[in-house]
Amino acid sequence: NLEVRAAAHFPDALLADERFGLILGELSPSAGEKVAAAEIQAIKNHLKKDGQALLLCLEKLEKDWVRPLAAKSGLSIYPVIKRDGYVVLRLN
Questions:
Q1: Which end of the chain is more exposed for a tag (fewer CB within 10 A), N or C?
Q2: What Rg value do the Cα atoms of the chain yield, rounded?
Q3: CA–CA dist 62, 39 (Å, integer)
Q4: Which of 50, 58, 63 minimizes the C-alpha distance to 23?
Q5: For residue 64, what are the CA distances in angstroms to 47, 59, 61, 90, 92?
Q6: What pLDDT is recorded for position 79?
């Protein structure tokens, strides 16, 4: 099953008991580090045990925010592709 919530604000659009095999998202630098932390924690909370998240962000955000926040939450992080200052990261 595929459910798309294209207009939803992550993580507020997720119910506490929902779990997903795949989460797709992006981190905006204008939202700030606290929002990034909440989104990464939501990924951790809402992924199924064998699930993964794909996250688009600036390479600078990967280094400054995503890697430290993912490590703190216990998520593994792997770059999938880097291009023109952006990176798609796999978190699980």
A1: N
A2: 12
A3: 14
A4: 50
A5: 23, 9, 5, 17, 19
A6: 97
Does residue 8 surpass a pLDDT of 70? no
pLDDT of residue 6 exceeding 80, the answer is no
**3-7, 32-36, 39-43, 67-71: least confident range:** 3-7
Q: Are strands 77-83 and 20-26 parallel, antiparallel or unpaired?
A: unpaired
Q: Which amino acid belongs to residue 20?
A: F
